[in-house]
Amino acid sequence: MATENLSLESSLRDAKERLKVDVNVFPLPGIITAILIMLLLNFVSTSTNHHLGLQADIISLSSPQQKSGLIWLAIFPKEDKLIISTDDKIKFELPLVSATLEDLTPLVKYLEKRNLEITTDMTLSQKFNANHTKVTLAVDQALNYYHFRPILLALAKAKITRYAFETIILKENS
Amino acid sequence: MTHSTVLKLKISKMKKKLSDYRWSTFAIILSITGLLITLGLCLYSVTISRNFGEVSLDIPIAQVQFEDPTLKITASSSSSHLIDSLTAILVLTEKSFLLSNLDALTNADRYEENVEIIRHVDGEPDLGNLKNGLEKYKVKSSRANGRESLDEVLVVYPTSALPMPIVIQVINFIKSSHLFSHVVLAGGTL
């Protein structure tokens, strides 16, 4: 019996050796899968919610729930620059100290463009919502009021009349 | 089906059975793990917005008259609230709050009697006293000027070195006290 098993195993091993195929495409399906997953993750992280990967450390407060402002800016310091990141992943850089009116021009133009797009959409759809033109600002806790003043000026220059500071709602029970 | 086809099919099945080839399992596990991570990220991104609140403020606009030559009319933008020298102003410094109106703050003769100082306690803004101060100011201002309806606007002017969390916290407190319907943050000049 044992001899039979041994011969069967040996013949199987021989057959296996004989029929073995060298597969050169081994990593390809794995690589394709990984690339597809990376593309999907990239899409999800950049397009579904601008809060994902938020770099500004914002304050926690018992404040009212956020309303539907369509323009969103995250403001945070990075080395000697003040970075302003938008909900559509555009980044503006200002000097952390002593920003001038010329430094603000690209941001003002961007805000004017977004404001115009939103008001045009509202006009064409004949549905007015005052909250839509409101700018929501996610301001980093490390910033002082001095750093924020140029942003306030840029909002005023872009003819924006309403803005809001974003907060993380503090759950009082927890 | 010819004999050669059947034979080829059998050989192929046998090859598959005997092969150590495990790439398909690896790809399936990788795909499922990736899809689960993506799905988790999607669910997280959908629910994350519920955790965010806001402290809203206004930027004042200038009242202007404009002419429409085609209709031969002159119209002006309407405003329910005005900012002038009697509008309430709250100056936020490192040591105290200064509560008054613009006229008294910039006039040395009226400064002493019209500017209320609310000192911070242990370096922290005394919000309880600030609320009392704001309530008293509203009553006093309406009696003195007879213009309660116009005192719905509060201009907040923080000093430059103050951290933004303190500024936001104070504004949130003023907004939640419902004493002023419009809060304006003064920017100063660059």
Which fold name fills CATH's third level, the topology of the largest domain in chain A? Nucleotidyltransferase, domain 5
Reported for the largest beta sheet of chain A, the result is: 6 strands, mixed
Q: How is the largest sheet of chain A built, in terms of strand order?
A: 1-6-5-2-3-4
Number of structural domains of chain B? 2
Radius of gyration of chain B, in Å, reads 34 Å
* First and last CA, distance of chain B: 87 Å
Oligomer: heterodimer
Q: Identify the CATH class of the largest domain in chain A.
A: Alpha Beta
Structural class of chain A: alpha/beta
Total helical elements of chain B? 6
What characteristic shape of chain A results from the CA principal axes?
Answer: elongated
Could you give the count of β-strands of chain B?
A: 8
Please, what is the average pLDDT of chain B? 80
Placed side by side, the strands forming the largest sheet of chain B appear as 6-5-4-7-8
- CATH architecture annotation name of the largest domain in chain B: 2-Layer Sandwich
Roughly what fraction of the amino acids of chain A lie in strands? 15-25%
Number of strands of chain A: 6
Using CB atoms under 8 Å apart, which protein chain pair has the greatest interface?
A-B, 64 and 53 residues
